[in-house]
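Design job #97: recover the sequence.
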């Protein structure tokens, strides 16, 4: 989904590309001129700091420390991340708990843990007490308190939020035309809209349509990515949690910022679009039976 052209069919004049890896995925940043090394270093620092705080796959992260705190405790997050907390508050409320960042332990029991054991513990999933964001975590700004070990997973919106942090870094450095692509989570800045393909979730290399993106974000999610067994993938309904969702296979969301687009792309797996009307966005989603749904304000073209 990284190929992009102007909406009039001409190539976008973003000829310099900075490629790197962060939070376990591939990133590309397209700009008019090569990004200076000091700016590249700053971008790497931003992504490393985010990972050091939020990754449940790192032994030295703040999230891992919370997960290992036998008696719970009070934990300070960077002031920068208040917006991420507030977005999750909105997502949890709008989806009635279907999106919940406290699904981390459930993902671990399904086999998606720091060791990538990929072996579900079915009995533990059935009998364990489930943590809820609005009742089992107490938050005051960027300070959270818990009374027992809690596994936080921000996979629903975290990558999009990091795309926003990287984009903000670029604009602070005076780079005002760019295209950031973090393996499906994208943010564009510039006067000319670009056309982006919506990759078919079951046929890599094919697209089901295109979308016009200008000064905004597009985030995609699919249950055919990050799979490790029959019916096992990374998208859970926070209200049930025992099995990954099965009714929707792919979603695409356009919004002003990538964190919102990423969070809503997850929410569309577990909630009807009407329940998310407090957010400003447009969307497309593919159901398990192959049907495709889209919003009236979707600015693009679908082939199916």
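Job complete. Output follows.
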């Amino acid at each position: 989904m990284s190929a992009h052209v102007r909406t009039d069919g001409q190539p976008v004049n973003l000829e310099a590309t900075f490629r790197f890896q962060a939070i376990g995925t591939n990133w590309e940043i397209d700009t008019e001129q090569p990004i200076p090394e000091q700016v590249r270093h700053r971008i790497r620092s931003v992504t490393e700091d985010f990972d050091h705080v939020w990754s449940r796959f790192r032994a030295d992260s703040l999230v891992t420390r919370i997960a290992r705190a036998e008696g719970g405790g009070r934990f300070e997050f960077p002031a920068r991340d208040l917006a991420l907390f507030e977005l999750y508050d909105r997502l949890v409320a709008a989806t009635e708990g279907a999106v919940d960042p406290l699904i981390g332990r459930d993902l671990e029991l399904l086999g998606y843990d720091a060791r990538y054991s990929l072996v579900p513990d079915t009995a533990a999933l059935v009998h364990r007490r489930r943590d809820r964001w609005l009742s089992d975590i107490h938050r005051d700004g960027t300070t959270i308190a818990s009374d027992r070990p809690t596994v936080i997973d921000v996979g629903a919106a975290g990558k999009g939020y990091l795309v926003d942090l990287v984009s903000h870094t670029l604009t602070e450095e005076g780079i005002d035309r760019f295209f950031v692509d973090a393996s499906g989570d994208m943010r564009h800045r510039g006067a000319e809209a670009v056309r982006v393909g919506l990759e078919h979730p079951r046929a890599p290399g094919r697209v089901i349509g295109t979308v016009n993106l200008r000064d905004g974000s597009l985030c995609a999610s699919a249950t055919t990515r990050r799979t490790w067994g029959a019916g096992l993938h990374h998208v859970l309904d926070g209200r049930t949690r025992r099995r990954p969702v099965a009714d929707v296979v792919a979603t695409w969301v356009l919004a002003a910022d990538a964190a919102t687009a990423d969070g809503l792309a997850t929410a569309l797996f577990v909630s009807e679009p009407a329940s998310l009307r407090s957010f400003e966005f447009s969307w497309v989603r593919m159901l398990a039976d192959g049907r495709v749904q889209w919003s009236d304000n979707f600015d693009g073209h679908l082939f199916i």
